[in-house]
Amino acid sequence: MPEGVRLVSRLSAIAWGLLIVGLWYLQVVRGDYYARLSLRNFVRIVPVPAVRGDILDRKFRVLATSAQAFDLAVNPQARDKEKAFALIAKWMGITKEEVKRRYRRNYVAPFLPVIVARDLPKRLAFRFAEIRLLYPQITIQVRPKRIYPYGPMTAHILGYVRGLDRERLQELKDYGYRRGDRVGYMGVEEYYDAYLRGRPGWIKMAVDKLGRPVKVLEERDPVKGESLVLSIDLDLQFIAFSHLKGKVGTVIFADPFSGEVLSMVSWPSYDDNVFVSDASTAGRVEVLTNPLSPMLNRAISGVYPPGSTFKIVVALAGLDSGVITPKTTFFCPGYMELGGVRFGCTHAHGRENVVSALGHSCNVYFYNLGLKLGSDGLFLYGGRFGLGRETGIDLPGEKRGLLPSKEWKRRRYRQPWYDGDTLNFSIGQGYILATPIQMLRVVSAVANGGWLVKPFLGKYSGKVRINSPEKRDLMLDKENLDVVRLGLESAITLPDGTARMLFYPDFRVAGKTGTAQSVPGKPAHGWFVGYFPADAPRYAVAVLLEYGKSSYYACQLLREIIDDMRSRGL
Amino acid sequence: MNLRRYRFFWMAVLLNLIGLLVLYSALQYRGKVVYQYLFERQLMWMVVAWVVFWITASVDYHYWKGVALVLYGISIALLVLVLLAGEVRYGAKRWLNLGGFVFQPSELAKVSYLLAVSYVASLKERFSWRWFGVLLGMTAVPFALIAKEPDLGTALVLLPIFLSLLLVWGVRLRWLIVSGLVSSGLLPIAWHFLKDYQRKRILVFLDPSRDPLGAGYTVLQSKIAIGSGGLWGKGYLSGTQNRFNFLPERHTDFIFSVLAEEWGAVGATLVILLFAYLVASAFDLALRSRDRFGRFLSVSAGTYIFVHAFVNIAMTCGYLPVVGLPLPFVSYGGTSLVVCYFLVGLLQSIDREVRRY
Fold first, then answer.
1. A-chain residues within 8 Å CB-CB of B222?
2. Is residue A212 part of a domain?
3. Which residue range forms the structural domain that includes residue A150?
4. Count of C-beta atoms within a 10 Å radius of residue B130
5. pTM for this prediction
6. Pairing outcome for strands A525-532 and A510-516
7. pLDDT tens, B152-192?
8. Are B295 and A1 in contact (CB < 8 Å)?
9. What SS3 state is found at A490?
């Protein structure tokens, strides 16, 4: 009998031992693991979005700002949600089933109010807010919402703000961006997102089993993003926009000396506000399916053959390399024959020097010059003027264009370079493609005395200068530049100059037209690049009308714009 | 009061006081005691239990020989009654309503069973098949009735008591192991008779992540509470699993999780050692007891406390399936507290008898 008792006693001792071992395994060996699980159980982090910085024009006029948006939310912890659903359905004019469907779809966690309607009209939001004592289930949440007061007028410059998508998240997650963050897409909103976004805050709170907040453990206030000051002049933007509207193309104004972009408009445009608001799905679909691609910023993302505007580069190349002098002349019978093929000119211009050839845009003169320079010479000078590569403007989506070479053609088409290619190249046709901003840069270099500037829009973030003029000396002789300037002025001053339309008795414009052949069977693109006033340039300008038939219409558009500018005293 | 003489009582009181401390913490929610009345009720039950102890300790334990079988008979009758007219709560018929006083006959059945088998076993000096048959029958009837409620956890408490009595009676351990193996061969058949929720509990026990928000949720949260307590614990009243309501049943069956979370491995081990000491003292008393009844009584009372404490703690740690057994002296609940003090009273009475000679 005592043996039996001792046995039972021993068995129980073994059992206690095992129990203690098991307990220590759980608490000490695996303690860290369970401590992590426990933290995950009760700590929730709720992000608090930061207010995005405003975007201002050069005179500090607001181009983009944040307003308050009101979202209607239902508290998941509240009792009698049905009553709230019924009221929401009645006031919003939707069915109760629809409200419940949205509630289920948008439900995230028990501690977060579920948004059933975004971006309520102010009056309706206030009506809901007034009855909050009767309906504790309903909360009106205020969040910052981006607004662009000028919509399509500034859409291409600014871009818009929306929730981060998967692709951008991959790129940005190392920089502290998280899923669901609202970030800039396109325009300066994207390019300067890091400056504009500010620092989001968060609330770390303890929640209970049902996810109901018990207390706030820690919080960090959001920091508002810095304001971004652009070089854009809203008045000029408005003028350019109102005259371009309805035509397909782009108008860019810049300070030729610094590269500051003063206005950049592209039509067709779109209202960037539709991408911010969740309500305007229809508006977004319309923008995205429009065959004229309203979201394309033609100023930097449209590539076109530069046509005769390229002659500025060719003329300077000839003078700078010594292939021609200002006195060199070529005879234009109205065409040039090469290998049995006729390369045409607009008129039979007779004998032309470089000044009159620019003024008349004589193809034959430039065919001859092009042949002397050779494709290598054209490629070399084209490259020096920044063609075939991005200007580095502070906007996403800039295109590079194309500056052809023998090497390029051999690789691309497995064909040798013909002299005919050189003829096309020398009048900006054939393979060459350029963006309007690139051509603006070319003409700016003529206007500013031979400096290749980098165009930019962003001037200040807060009080900090973020871009200073960046320019490279093209090492061009002053005399040669003066000759080309004279050529660009003669396009306006000569009675039969191609841009005669821009003649003002008291004020001189200089520039080069271009009518660039496009796809066979489609109208040509119309170009004008230039600067004014010719003697002391304040503005460099590039106008492009896509399939605009002729440079005539580009000049006409610019004339309207300049008239308007002058009437407004700009 | 002599510390050594009343050691059973003092151990019980110590465990009881620890229990009250943990209970106070377990009743917190969002930083305040929201179930104040439960705490007060437990205090009241403690006083009742002390009275029960005092009476039991004063009475000569041989007195229970006379009433053991009567009590046993009454409790069997009540078990039958509860099956016929019991109140159904949580899908089980365990409660009997006697004019506003609701209680679980299975609690009474456990104690009266313990008294009755100790008495019957003490009648025969040596093992005999006939008496074995009688004891087996005495076990099987309440077992079947309680299991039928269904309350498998409570029913299973009867088995260790039965087995420990057999061992003390002289049955060889080897023999028990063999028959244990044979009956485990019958497990698949038993599986067939289990209720769905019981099967689910066993499956979830084998793999708690199988159903983290359903049946496995309690065990998982309990393991998180215990594990996250670490060596030194999160501090009294600071257990996050406890305070933020992640632990279900934390004032009753899962109170050990609160203890382990807030007091750590060190505190929890100390409590286990206290239980171990109490149980070992009971077995030690059995060795010194003069008569067979006292011996059997000490062993079965010790086993009773051992089984409850061991199964409860192993269950909260996820080492055993969830069966509704309270932690003696610690869990909230008047019946359990009174029964445990009653057993300690028996031990005290036997101890006094031992000292007399």
1. none
2. no
3. 51-197
4. 8
5. 0.66
6. antiparallel
7. 778 888 989 999 988 888 887 778 788 777 777 676 677 76
8. yes
9. helix
